[in-house]
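User: Second chain of the day. Same drill as before.
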Amino acid sequence: MFKSKAICIALFAIVLPLAGQQTRRLELVSIESRTVDRTVSLPAELDPYLQAEIEARVPGYVERVLVDRGSDVKRGQLLVVLSAPELVAETAAAESALHQAEAEESQAEAQVAAVQSTYDRLQEASKTPGAVAGNELIQEEKQLDAAKSVVQSRKSVIRAAQDRLAAAKAMESYLRITAPFSGKITDRYVDRGVMVPAGGHLPLLKLQQITHLRLTVPVPESYVEHIVRGAPVSFHIAAQPGRIYSAKIARIASALDSQSRTMMVELDVFNKDGTLAPGMYPTVDWPVSSARPLLLVPSTSVVTTTERTFVITPVNGKAHWVNVRKGAVFGDQVAIRGNIKAGEKVIKRASDEIREGSPLL
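Assistant: Same format as last time:
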């Protein structure tokens, strides 16, 4: 009684795989080889081409703010004027020191001229034997050399005073804060009378260049090989339904983000009519085209497990697992790479239940 039950169970277990294999033998497709062109929708973000938070380089009180949020400014335009009396005093002191050094140099040069005149007279007189003692001429020559050394010393003092004055004027010039580039003031953080420290603790203004924008697109790894510098790309924004904008690929990161497995690509966008703004999230119609023919199979033909990715081919009536790498997806097909070629047959609906070496009737 028990033996007959065991035999029945064993026979039932064998019949199921055979029935499954018979249905699978009709699901073979050929690997295609062709070039493909299409677009995929990718999220992106618009950023200013140039952006800066304007900060004070020297501490001082805000005396005037000449711009406000929304102001268009040109490079070099005066934005903020600070007040710092101690810097003005340092400049005045440096100027005074320079004038003093110049006066001392003039005095030293006058002394050289006087000694030079005396020395010249003695030297002329020494041509007459016995008119001038030899020791007297030597002493006058030494005095001339000393006077010339004083002049050189005074010149060094003047150069140092000039450097100190230039530094003081440079520091004082920092009280007049100008625009580093042309753009639009998008934020204002201070008002008149505010004490601002140096070193970025309190930004004064935010300046952005919005006529020229950066469109940053995180391109998935499978589409990286299709990036072409200079290629035109179209995009659209929710704020302008139905309108298509254009940009060109300008900068490629050439490295993948380790977490998102995407490569950052920047496109140049010229915002001539001002309809675009930094911070917008456009949708990009990213072109995906193959420079060479790709091997394409149905997406259902590729099996991915924790250990490997493979397709199944029939070899002498048995299943053979071939390791492949998945590429871009094109509708219901996917590009693959591996030890396989165009025209070979693969199972259309594969799974890891079809074991390596199992018969395909």
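The chain has four domains: 39-49+209-289, 53-82+175-207, 85-173, 293-361.

User: Great, on to the next one.
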